[in-house]
Amino acid sequence: MNARIVEPLCNSDEYTNDSIAIRVSPFRELFAFVSIQNKLDERIYIEWSNFRWDGSQIAFDSDSRLFMDQPKQDEAIMAGENTDKYIVQKELIGSSWITPWYHEKDFKKGGTQTSVMIVPVRFSSGKIKDYKIKFEIFNSEL
After folding, report:
1. CB–CB of 65/72 below 8 Å?
2. Cα–Cα distances in Å, from 57 out to 12, 80, 90, 110?
3. What percent of the chain has a predicted confidence (pLDDT) above 70?
4. N or C end: fewer C-beta atoms under 10 angstroms in the chain?
């Protein structure tokens, strides 16, 4: 499975501007891989507790069920560096299971599935910008 960002229009799996680069890709049927690169000469912060995926809060693949509901700490990304995370929508997590956010078999006949992520970035000036990333996943083997 592959992803392409459709809004803002960039026709690849990475949105980039002068400040930031955000890459999204599906990882199995449970998680999405998100990479955020700081392209500035100063530190930025990702506000993970305000991050949304299709309206849902997120959990990391490393979170335990016991502590996943605790607020996520903001993450500093130093100038020129990046962070990589595997995330899941919290609303898809049950007491002993995780519901897949897509089913690969649904893509055997082609087609796409669209998702939206809101990536809140706080700059060193204190300004917060919510990057809205709308992306499609599709089967590249068809």
Report:
1. no
2. 25, 27, 6, 29
3. 98
4. C
Tell me which amino acid residue 21 is: A
All residues at 6 or more sequence positions from 99 whose CB lies less than 8 Å from its CB, including other chains: 92, 93
31's tokens: 């998680």
Place of tokens 């949304």: 52
Full 3-state SS string of 76-87: EECCCCEEEEEE
Distance CA 58, CA 66 (A): 15
At residue 50, what are phi and psi to the nearest 5 degrees?
-100, 0
Provide the token pair at 142. Answer: 């068809």
**What confidence score (pLDDT) does residue 12 get?**
86
CB 45 within 8 A of CB 122: yes
Tens of pLDDT, residue by residue over 54-96, are 999 999 988 887 778 888 999 999 999 999 999 999 999 887 8
Please say whether the beta carbons of 109 and 138 come within 8 A: no
DSSP state string for 2-44: EEEEEETT-SSSEEE-SSEEEEEEEETTTEEEEEEEE-SSS-E
Residue 110, both tokens: 């082609």
